[in-house]
Amino acid sequence: FGIASDETFVITTTNRKEITEDNFSELVHDGVTLYLLQSVDQMLLLATKERIDFLPHYDTLVKSGMYEYYASEGQNPLPFALAELIDNSLSATSQNTGIRSIQIKLLFDDSQGKPAVAVIDNGSGMTSKQLNNWAVYRLSKFTRQGDFESDHSGYVRPLPVPRSLNSDISYFGVGGKQAVFFVGQSARMISKPAASQDVHELVLSKEDF
To answer: Signal sequence: where (predicted)?
Structure first.
């Protein structure tokens, strides 16, 4: 890497979590992106990019009939799709100590590009690893296990309280990716983890799928 013998450096995850002798063994997954920096808080000179490759989760097959179920019951799936998008914000803001802010905007200004549905919140933010996990089709927060940087690792369903408060509304929903592609043709998620200075952006399009 061109590091001089008298230089100091750190290795971190994309969430600026320093890799040490104590937590090195936790890096059990192939493909974890790491930064080689002069310090944990070093400013990145350029935006970094990584392509996400994955095999579809088995739930793609076993739960692929959800839309047919809604159609057979004569229900409009649009509210379920919007509920999925809101659920991400409910989950992100569930630990807020102050005000929980969730906004839904319908954008039709041609100067800003194609029409869009924007869901904006003041939640904890997602790391690049968590955005990667979200991108994996039908990998729900109930089946993610052992992720080095996942808030949903070892998820336990909360005590019975209104589902609108505990971000559990997607348990019977259609899945975030299905919801996005039911409403539109692409998704862009922009997130800044509360403990990080970096902003992470994920772009998915139906064309890429």
So the answer is: none
